Amino acid sequence: MYVAVIIPISDAAAPELSDYLNLTDVALRRKLEHEHGLYIAESSKVIERAIRAGHQPRSLFVQEQWLEQARELVQDFDDCPIYLVTSELALSVSGYAIHRGAMAAMHRPEPPSVHSLLADARRVVILEDIVDHTNVGAIFRAAAGFGVDAVLVSPRCADPLYRRSVRVSMGTVFQVPWTRLPEWEPAAALLADAGFHVGALALDPSAISLREFASASHEKIALLLGSEGDGLTGQALSASDSIVTIPMMNGVDSLNVASACAVALYAIE
Predict the structure, then answer these.
(1) Residue pLDDT tens, the chain, 269 long
(2) DSSP H or E run through 90
């Protein structure tokens, strides 16, 4: 029978809480995650989705009113401690009030290969150098909602498992398979070998409309999205088969990248 290991914590400097310290410091969070292979899942729903996807919890960090729910979340993991804290201590450790039930330090799974993700896929989304974690999370949510088979992220793209990305995605980063691409020369070869038509969303005089692109009914489509400020790089555009634009009105030239992704996915589904 499962017996939860519940450890009350009263000191913000306790070594048990080292995984959760300074969550508002992006640089420290990245360093911790990449060195120790961890990410933070926030809210009971997100933790549940991560566990359902096969991810392993290392520990939970909860306030007393959420304890029973936390027990249920980790009932299959005998070696996962539950750190019980007051709301004041939670604020002191994490840097913000936790209103969503729990946080969990999760072990990062080994990323799949690009080849394995493309093998049976028909619709994929590629994110090049998108640095805003909110946009990354929103794109994953759209990708899940429109049945995208995989998301591929460039070497310099923001981490989909960063806390804000996970939260904004509502845990869908655990539903849509994803991995990092190599640089563009080998990445373009992988996409071509798998039979994908790469459609780059960009403002360009040679671009075709999204309606025209969707009507072509390409069997396999990789939708390519660029960074919030500069858009797609020259290498990305060179690796594309079509440059696609969403026609706009009233002097608006483009949409937010996550909104553009959702519109394009609806058009090509």
Answers:
(1) 566 789 999 888 898 888 887 665 555 555 566 656 888 888 888 899 999 999 999 999 888 888 888 888 898 898 899 999 887 777 777 665 555 668 899 998 888 999 999 999 999 999 999 999 999 999 999 999 999 999 999 999 999 998 889 989 988 999 999 999 999 999 999 999 999 999 999 988 889 999 999 999 899 999 999 987 888 999 999 999 999 999 988 988 788 999 999 999 999 98
(2) helix 87-94
Q: Please state whether beta strands 242-245 and 123-127 pair in parallel, antiparallel, or not at all (unpaired).
A: unpaired
Contact by Cβ (8 Å): 241, 198: yes
Secondary structure in 3-state letters for 203-253: CCCCCEEHHHHHHCCCCCEEEEECECCCECCHHHHHCCCEEEECCCCCCCC
- For the domain spanning 5-107, the CATH number is 3.30.1330.30
- Residues with Cβ < 8 Å from 80, sequence gap 6 or more? 5, 57, 58, 59, 60, 74
The two structure tokens encoding residue 189:
């070869």
Beta bridge partners of 208: 244
CATH superfamily of 114-268: SPOUT methyltransferase, trefoil knot domain (3.40.1280.10)
Structural domain spans, the chain: 5-107, 114-268
Residue 242 φ then ψ, to 5°? -140, 145
Structure tokens of 82?
Answer: 């539950």
C-beta neighbour count of 249 within 10 angstroms: 5
